[in-house]
Amino acid sequence: MPKFGRRSKAAALAVVLVAAGGGLWRLLQPRQLTVTVLTDPAFRMAHANWSSLVESRFREVNRLYSDAGTGVRWKLLTSDHTDPTATIATLDQRAVALPFDVESKADILVAITGVHEGRRSGSAGPFVRAIVVVDSPDQSEAHNALILAHELAHLFGAQHEPAALHTILAETPETAAFSPKSVQLIRRMRDYPFQAGVDGLLQGSWAQLAQDAIAAADPGSSGNATARAHQVIAAALLNGRRRDQAIEHFRAAIDGDPNNADMRLEIALAYSRNSQDDLAAAELRAAVRLAPNNPVTHRSLGVVLAKIHDPEAATDELTTAARLDPSNAETQLALGYALSQQVGRTDAAIAALQQALRLNPRLAVAQRDLDTLISQKKRFQDDVARLRVQTQQSPLDSDAHFRLGQAEERTGDLQAAEREFQKAIELQPGAGRPHADLALLAYLRGDYQAAQREVDKAKAAGVEPPTLVLIGLKRKASQP
């Protein structure tokens, strides 16, 4: 019996050693990630030898990753495919569409494009399956290989590093060096199930593993590293349309770093995409308090307020954003929309859209909205002329005076509108609709007591006043 026991222990020890050795062997071997490369016509037209260029760039990328000790090797399966997303407008949209448009057994899909989008070198995010890399034919092959290595590193959660570090993760990589923290991060995340894209974060313990790895390799070395890790994971999940899970990580990020305005902006985007605009507005108000001189926070809040039908407050925020960043066409576009939702502000809305087009003549949506408003204004003016004739023909018709008042209101002639509403009330004292419109006119001229009186009269007659007035009066009452 004793001999049998010793043999059993020896056998068990051998099993443990073999298992440990197998694990050690796996750790010492590189993770081979397979890649399908797709190229678009713009890239192929710039390089007659495009196929050999793709292969040589990946050979150089493999050398860079091997020399750095990342534990990752890239295996190019094919580079013969034409990129089916070549006609999609932006790099980010192309990267999102690629996995749906390409059938491949590869771990990673890489589209190399000759189409430039400003100074961007590509579109790549943490834990996605597909990326787009921009080719620069006027740069050396060494530079283009660095850019490819740079974009691939983002797959593992690696973030841009300060340019002073002169690493491959610098905003514009100039050297082939990886920082030790980036190498550590890539090694820890190299076994990630990239074929699943960001959904891999929802498998097993990958979300926690990614959080720990990113926090340990946080290149910013500022703020709360764990909060930053949650933010990276949340952004990846949001881009992968996993909004509920993204919000959970954003909330954890904000709990760890409550004074970070950027995190408030990002969770607001998640809430807005999840049709939770009231929650988005609350986060954006907090972001405005934290970063009052940041035009992005004011613009974002203005856009959300316009969505939840508070155009007056939206206009205030967008006007502030325009003052802080007067060259931003998107702010003027949003301002034009917010103004167009308010009575009597058609001319101001037209002016904002005209300014948007001066700043960006190619902003097609601004031209479309401008044409709509100009046509609308002409229609309102025609309505006034037609309804004025009706009131002259039927001077005792209360409804005719009310309709004329509304038409005058829409053109922006608020004094004429008020006269017609008063006339409608004289002819039909129990009518509630003219009181509702008089409440709006009183509110617009800043007479909030008069507006409240008209609100009460409208409600007494069974008519609900305009939402803008009710929201505005409630806001005014809460102010000191």
Tag the structure with descriptive keywords:
five-stranded mixed sheet, 5 strands, 480 residues, 7% strand, alpha/beta
Describe this structure in words.
This protein is α/β, with parallel strands linked by helices and 480 residues long. 63% of the residues lie in helices and 7% in strands. The protein has 21 helices and five strands. It has helices at 2-28, 41-46, 50-68, 91-101, 141-153, 180-189, 206-216, 225-239, 243-256, 261-273, 277-290, 295-307, 311-324, 329-340, 346-359, 364-393, 398-411, 414-427, 433-444, 448-460, 467-478; strands at residues 31-39, 72-82, 108-113, 122-123, 130-134. The protein has a five-stranded mixed β-sheet with strand order 2-1-3-5-4, sandwiched between helices. A hairpin with a 6-residue loop joins strand 4 and strand 5 (130-134). Helix 8 runs antiparallel to helix 9 and helix 10 (261-273) runs antiparallel to helix 11 (277-290). The protein is elongated. The mean pLDDT is 88.
What topology emerges from the helices and strands here?
Layout: H1 2-28, E1 31-39, H2 41-46, H3 50-68, E2 72-82, H4 91-101, E3 108-113, E4 122-123, E5 130-134, H5 141-153, H6 180-189, H7 206-216, H8 225-239, H9 243-256, H10 261-273, H11 277-290, H12 295-307, H13 311-324, H14 329-340, H15 346-359, H16 364-393, H17 398-411, H18 414-427, H19 433-444, H20 448-460, H21 467-478
Parallel strand pairs: 1-2, 1-3, 3-5
Antiparallel strand pairs: 4-5
